[in-house]
Write a structure and sequence with these properties.
This protein is of the alpha/beta class and 241 residues long. The chain folds into two domains: 128 residues, Rossmann fold, CATH 3.40.50; 105 residues, OB fold (Dihydrolipoamide Acetyltransferase, E2P). The chain is 33% helix and 31% strand. A five-stranded parallel sheet has the order 2-1-3-4-5, sandwiched between helices. A five-stranded antiparallel sheet has the order 10-9-8-12-11. Strands 13-14-15 form a three-stranded antiparallel sheet, with no helix packed on it. A hairpin with a 2-residue loop joins strand 11 and strand 12. Helix 1 packs across helix 4 and helix 2 packs parallel to helix 3. The chain is elongated.
Length: 241
């Protein structure tokens, strides 16, 4: 399910945009959850408490914290969320390049422009969907880019994700995590450890040196598969595919 945030200080426009989006999704195989915010500060407060979205529509002109400032704060927390600026003035389009915005939409043309924008946005979203691992529970939603996962280890009933800048956990069996990753970038190196092949710096005998400086020992049972997978991964990357 796509999570969408609409941030605009005009209640009437929020209701209009929510209605347009719900109409667009109706009858499609995609589902969405939409939250609306009349103040950028309220959205930012929730985002700092861990609430995440796939797409954010941000009004550029809002009192106190405007859409440009909010977008910069969003980018500090999430490099991958899709940002669409909403404005009454097309001259603000250049602002989008500073924060990697996907596009912009003019309020007066929302009904006409939104369908085409959503088609393009959903194509981009699905192209990149396989590059993320999603943790989704009743009270938590988080997308983790594969490139940021160094390794994953078992701790009790939890899977612990060691990222470039922090650790996060999910209550799930390691075997199920490996299945859900679904890509060719990860390999089981020992019963309690999954490693991202892109973060292996060196393999010596059965010792792995990872990009964060840690060393892990590969079990005798898995060493042959790890070497083969690493060799295939390197060849694949060198071929530029």
């Amino acid at each position: 399910m796509l999570r969408i945030a609409l941030v605009d200080d005009e209640q009437e426009f929020l209701e209009q945009m929510k209605g347009l989006l719900l109409d667009w999704f109706e009858g499609r195989e995609e589902f969405c959850h939409i939250d609306t915010f009349r103040k950028a500060e309220l959205f930012y407060m929730e985002s700092t408490e861990g609430k995440a979205y796939d797409i954010c529509f941000l009004d550029i002109n809002m009192p106190r914290m405007d859409g440009r400032e909010l977008a910069m704060k969003i980018r500090e927390q999430d490099e991958d969320v899709y940002i669409v600026f909403v404005t009454s003035h097309s001259r603000f389009v250049k602002v989008g390049y500073q924060v990697g915005a996907f596009d912009f939409i003019v309020k007066e043309e929302a009904g006409r422009e939104l369908p085409g924008l959503m088609e393009r946005l959903l194509r981009a979203y699905h192209r990149h969907a396989k590059e993320f691992y999603t943790i989704s529970t009743y009270c938590r939603y988080e997308k983790i880019a594969y490139r940021n996962i160094i390794f994953i280890y078992k701790q009790g009933q939890n899977a612990m994700f060691v990222l470039k800048d922090r650790e996060v956990q999910e209550r799930k069996a390691l075997k199920k995590v490996l299945e859900d990753l679904g890509g060719e970038d990860f390999v089981l190196v020992e019963r309690g450890y999954i490693v991202n092949l892109s973060h292996i710096v060196r393999i010596n005998a059965r010792e792995l040196l990872l990009s964060n400086g840690m060393n892990l020992t590969v079990s005798k049972e898995h060493i042959k598969n790890v070497r083969e997978r690493l060799g295939m991964y390197c060849m694949y990357k060198l071929s530029g595919q």
